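User: My collaborator sent over this chain with a note saying "see what the structure looks like." That's all I know about it. Can you take a look?
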Amino acid sequence: MAPAPVEIAVPLHGMELRRWSLEDAERLLAAIEHSLPDLRAWMPWTKVQPTLESVRTFLERSGVEAGSEVEMGFGLFDANGEVVGGFGLHGRRGPDILEIGYWVRSDRTARGYATAAARTLTDTGFDCFPHVDRMEIRCHPANLASAAVPPKLGYRLETTEAGAQLVWTMTRKGWRSIR
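Assistant: Without extra context I'll predict from the sequence alone. Here is the result:
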């Protein structure tokens, strides 16, 4: 198994996905605060006002990559080093499943960033974790911007859980057939 890279070029406007580090705490907090009204509609973790301390705690926990336990947080950074959004690969759905999570700063939406970064993380998930046979993207049905991303990548809408979450899936075989 190849370890997931720390930095991954995203083929869009010089963007880069980079594993979060503690040095990113202030920039991440600023991006969250800028987007808080929009994020609160969809992200449960924003119900409590983020602080520099809570952001640092998150950053300390966002780098697990051991066997089937995967919890990796990435920042999406532009060419100037500004935080454009937050992305993650999460192993919380089962040993052979990785979930991609994402958000983009409110002032940087509708530019293809989420789609490009989710494509890059799908490649990364399948390339670096041979035990993973399925990738998922989940979002609320009313979150039209997030729900627009998976079908652009060829993900299939598998189900709607309790009317509150769309579950989009991609298998390793399916991804290889369209890549």
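A starting point for your reply to your collaborator: The mean pLDDT is 89.
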